[in-house]
Amino acid sequence: MPALPWSAGLYQPPDGTQLHVLTTNLPLTRYRDILRFLRWTIKIRTQLKSTPGCAGYTMDAQPFSKTFWTLSAWSDKEAMEVFVHTGTHAAMLKDMAGRLGNPHFADSTATPADLPLSWSEAHARIKRES
């Protein structure tokens, strides 16, 4: 399954701005949770479209290996944290509790000129952080 295309968020960073980047690797424990996760993904992408501070986002789904990667750019870490702990995303965290294996998260930075972000660099970041 190909990665979803990069979607721009509401936040339009000025040139030279330093963005907060979050890369995640989310392995599911069971194949039967894939559809549940994908339903949440649709809802979360709707939340991302209207989230202040979000410069852009994408997802790389690898359902045959029960693994999902996310990549997003933010005005700052605080904006990203607000998104993670509110609304649909917060509800998903509760619902998916116990359904994830060992997730990995990597924080980094980028500039507006780096957008859209590279999946090869994102995958390398996670491997370095693991």
Could you characterize what this model shows?
This protein has 130 residues and is an alpha+beta fold. The chain has a single domain, classed as Alpha-Beta Plaits. The protein has 4 helices and 5 strands, in the order ββαββααβα. It has helices at 34-49, 77-84, 87-95, 119-129, and strands at 7-8, 19-27, 54-62, 67-74, 104-110. A 5-stranded antiparallel beta sheet has the order 1-3-4-2-5, with helices on both faces. The model has no long low-confidence stretch (mean pLDDT 95).
CATH fold descriptor: Alpha-Beta Plaits
How many DSSP E strands?
5
Rg = 14 Å
Overall geometric form: globular
The portion of residues assigned to helices is 25-40%
Strand order of the largest sheet: 1-3-4-2-5
CATH class: Alpha Beta
Total count of domains: 1
Cα-to-Cα separation, first versus last residue: 24 Å
What is the structural class? Answer: alpha+beta
- Main sheet: strands, sense, barrel: 5 strands, antiparallel
Order of SSEs? EEHEEHHEH
Mean pLDDT: 95
Named at the architecture level, the CATH assignment is 2-Layer Sandwich
Total of DSSP H or I helical runs spanning 4+ residues? 4
Strand content: 25-35%
